[in-house]
Write a structure and sequence with these properties.
The structure holds 2 protein chains of 2 kinds. By secondary structure, chain A is α/β, with parallel strands linked by helices. Chain A has helices at residues 8-13, 18-26, 33-43, 50-62, 75-86, 108-114, 136-148, 160-164, 168-182, 194-197, 200-212, 231-248, 263-276, 294-307; strands at residues 64-67, 100-103, 121-124, 153-157, 187-191, 217-219, 253-255, 289-290. In chain A, strands 7-6-5-4-3-2-1-8 form an 8-stranded parallel β-sheet. The chains are: A alpha/beta, B alpha/beta. Chain B: This is Betaine-aldehyde dehydrogenase.
């Protein structure tokens, strides 16, 4: 599809120094906030019904990173989460498994055991999640621990302070180092904490920065701040992965996280994927939902489609 | 691009609207047959199904309606503004209450997607009545001196592309200022105006204040020429507008004309590309391009032409064309066979003159009037498709190298209704907008309407303004 793709060599040049990187990131097309939000809202009015809805719900379930990121997490809770990821709805074994369970690094081994043999991946938020305010070697140790414990995916947070200070190369180098620590064993999701980046221009720059540094996924947020995934910032990141693949041939995944609670919302995000990046992103290798409460709503909607009745929260497991 | 995620059809229910097998003319608060008994059929452009049979106004009916309006004018213009406002607010609220019904009706009769009638047309229709209702008791403070007087009977002729919205643009300010109205809707889309007649009755509007005369060009001509009409307002083609100007010349009638356009949508190299692509799509494919202010000429800076066109083509491939009542439809039917023929002929001429034609892979329904979204590249100012208004989903792409060249090309047209500027640079927006000879200049957006904002043209796009405080002037003796 791309006809004017700069060579990979040209893109590697942009990371030669802080100033070339800055020039590149600031040379990306701007984002008009009003237009972006209007487009996201208009895609949100797609009416998804019947067979398309059933398909979308199953697809969304298979894209969920079932997450528990609390200080109060116990091995018991993580095992319960793992069991639910493998069989989200015990009353209906045709329900697809979720994509992954997402836990803190110290719970990776427990999670790994809980989902063993199921194909469900274990993701871990390493790199001093959620603030990311630690020395690089601490972050890398965090990552190595998680990978050694069997993590299939690492969700890293970027240093927002450095990014906002314009130290793009520092952020880039950190991502490169973390990617290296992931090695061949884990896919890397880079979390920008879009709510803290504040402007859409920053989100686009962060997306490109992450992809240049080798991210396998770009992810909106930690779920720990006030503003997390929104249709608009996810749309923007989908445009970024679409353009990045057009330029480099490399496909990168997108993961909106935090604040997506209902099936209706999830389906709107799938519409964004379908009509922005395209159907190539419509599976859990390339698109994920970071959401803990979303799954139960998806399951209830699924039950309603199957039975014609809305069963209620006691017909799905609490975790 | 076949998707693994196919949206199931999501048709809006037709049962919310009850279309009678026949309708009369609305004169002096009553539905009546045409004096000579003539009727015509109105069809649904997406299926060619006959929706209803409508009385066809002739000269005698025009005379009857104008007399009714003249009689009503005495009382209506003498009412305090606050009283007229009550009626207008009531009409606005009824429109809101019946908006789903009206949206479905408009989609059936016009062919445009329900998404547009539901989300754009109807909210704007209600907003116009609310807005001008607010002005009715404040005319002394509108900047036209104390106690400005209404003109009398307004003869209004509206087009088929936004039947109910154009009605609102015409009737709301006319009534707010104390005029009475005889309105002729287009022959292909008379139904929503007839439903509006019913709304006037529902609102208890005094008889004769609003009269609706469905009919053809002869009825419009008779209305414009009627000696007892004080004000003529026309929206439609430039050719008819010129004829009207000739008819009205030398009389004491006041005239506003809102005619054709060939809007330039200028994209600079520092534009927000993704949003510009959306704006280009909105600019030319909204209402199948049957919009007088459509951005039908894309002027793109040469340095980003390739990148932009690639994005645009990819985006056009996601447009969904089909049943206008489906809530997921982006592109509906062309309004009439006649209009389809005109679009087809102009597109063929574009090809014959050497422009390069492109359309996304797109299946057209077998019945009804359809035209695939179409893009012409390698277009120059000398091509017919860069000069003539096509009034269809056809975009002509031209390039420029400098801002001066962009302005020169944008202004090099017989029209002057709208233009768009896409750039991240605020100073450039202001500098370029000041040089463009167009009634509306949008920046980093396109086809946005609001009742508070005046709308109208330069050159062959007509004169006078509708909407906003300026819109009052056309209906006041100032």
């Amino acid at each position: 599809m791309p006809t004017t793709a700069p060579t990979a060599h040209a893109l590697s040049d942009v990371t030669a120094s802080d100033s070339t990187l800055r020039r590149f990131l600031h040379g990306l097309p701007g984002v008009d906030a009003v237009g972006l939000e209007a487009r996201a809202a208009s895609l949100g009015t797609r009416s998804i019904k019947t067979t398309a809805k059933a398909y979308a719900i199953d697809l969304a379930i298979s894209m969920v990173d079932l997450t528990t990121l609390e200080g109060a997490d116990t091995p018991g809770k993580v095992r319960a989460l793992g069991a639910k990821a493998v069989h989200p709805d015990p009353t209906d074994r045709t329900t697809p498994a979720t994509a992954a369970v997402c836990v803190y690094p110290d719970m990776v081994a427990v999670a790994k055991e809980a989902v063993a043999g199921s194909g469900v991946k274990v993701a871990s938020v390493a790199t001093a999640f959620p603030a990311g305010r630690a020395a690089l070697d601490v972050k890398l140790a965090d990552v190595r621990d998680a990978v050694a414990a069997g993590a299939d995916e690492i969700d890293m947070v970027i240093d927002r302070g450095a990014f906002l200070a314009g130290k793009y190369l520092k952020v880039y180098d950190e991502i490169v180092a973390v990617k290296q620590a992931c090695g061949d064993r884990a896919r890397l999701k880079v979390i920008f904490e879009t709510g803290e980046l504040s402007t859409y221009d920053n989100i686009r720059r962060a997306s490109w920065l992450g992809m240049l540094a080798g991210a396998d996924f770009i992810k909106t947020s930690t779920g720990k701040v006030a503003v997390n995934a929104t249709p608009a910032n996810t749309l923007l990141m989908l445009e970024a992965v679409r353009d990045f693949r057009a330029q480099t041939g490399v496909q990168v995944g997108v993961k909106p996280a935090g604040g997506i609670r209902t099936s209706k919302d999830a389906i709107k995000f799938l519409v964004l994927v379908n009509e922005t990046a395209g159907p190539d992103w419509l599976d859990n290798t390339w698109f994920r939902f970071g959401a803990s409460s979303l799954l139960n709503d998806l399951l209830m909607q699924r039950q309603k489609l199957a039975t014609g009745r809305y069963s209620g929260p006691d017909y799905v497991t609490v975790d | 691009m076949a998707s693994v995620f196919e949206y199931a059809p999501a048709p809006e229910s037709r049962s919310v609207v009850d279309i009678a097998p026949s309708y009369g003319l609305f004169i002096d608060g009553e539905f009546a047959e045409a004096a000579d008994g003539k009727v015509f059929k109105t069809v649904s452009p997406s299926t060619e199904e006959v929706l209803s049979e409508v009385a066809q106004a002739g000269e005698a009916d025009v005379d009857r309606a104008v007399r009714a309006a003249r009689k009503a004018f005495e009382k209506w213009s003498a009412l305090p503004g606050s009283e007229r406002a009550k009626y207008l607010f009531r009409i606005a609220r009824i429109i809101q209450e019946r908006s789903r019904e009206l949206a479905v009706l408009e989609t059936l009769d016009n062919g445009k997607p329900i998404k547009e009638t539901r989300d754009a047309d109807l909210p704007l229709v209600a907003a116009h009545f609310f807005y001008y209702a607010g002005w009715a008791d404040k005319l002394d403070h509108a900047g036209f001196g104390t106690n400005p007087r209404p003109l009398g009977v307004a003869g209004q002729v509206i087009p088929w592309n936004f039947p109910l919205l154009m009605l609102a643009w015409k009737i709301a300010p006319a009534l707010a200022t104390g005029n009475t109205v005889v309105l002729k809707p287009a022959e292909t889309t008379p139904l929503s105006a007839l439903f509006f007649a019913d709304i006037c009755r529902q609102a208890g509007l005094p008889k004769g204040v609003v009269n609706i005369l469905p009919g053809y060009g002869d009825a419009g001509a008779a209305l414009v020429a009627h000696p007892d009409v004080n004000k003529v307002a026309f929206t439609g083609s430039t050719a008819v507008g010129k004829e009207i100007a000739r008819t009205v010349a030398g009389t004491r009638k006041k005239l506003t004309l809102e005619l054709g356009g060939k809007g330039a949508n200028i994209v600079f190299d520092d534009a927000p590309i993704d949003q510009a692509v959306e704006g280009i799509v909105t600019g030319i494919f909204f209402n199948q391009g049957q919009v007088c202010c459509a951005g039908s000429r894309l002027l793109v800076q040469e340095s980003i032409q390739e990148e932009l066109l690639e994005s645009l083509k990819r985006r056009l491939s996601t447009l969904r064309l089909g049943d206008p009542l489906d809530k997921n439809t982006d592109i509906g039917a062309i309004n009439s066979a006649e209009q389809l023929a005109r679009i087809t002929a102009l597109a063929e001429q574009g090809e014959a003159e050497g422009a390069e034609r492109w359309s996304p892979a797109c299946e057209l329904p077998t019945s009804g009037y359809w035209f695939a979204p179409t893009l012409f590249t390698n277009v120059t100012q000398a091509h017919t498709i860069a000069r003539d208004e096509i009034f269809g989903p056809v975009l002509s792409v031209l390039t420029f190298r400098t801002p001066d060249e962009a302005v020169a090309k944008a202004n090099n047209t017989q029209y002057g209704l709208s233009a768009g500027i896409w750039t991240e640079k605020g100073s450039r927006i202001l500098a370029v907008a000041n040089k463009l000879r167009a009634g509306v200049v949008w920046s980093n957006t396109f086809n946005k309407f609001d009742p508070t904002s005046p709308f109208g043209g330069y050159k062959e796009s007509g004169f006078g303004r509708e909407g906003g405080r300026h819109g009052l002037e056309a209906y006041l003796d100032v």
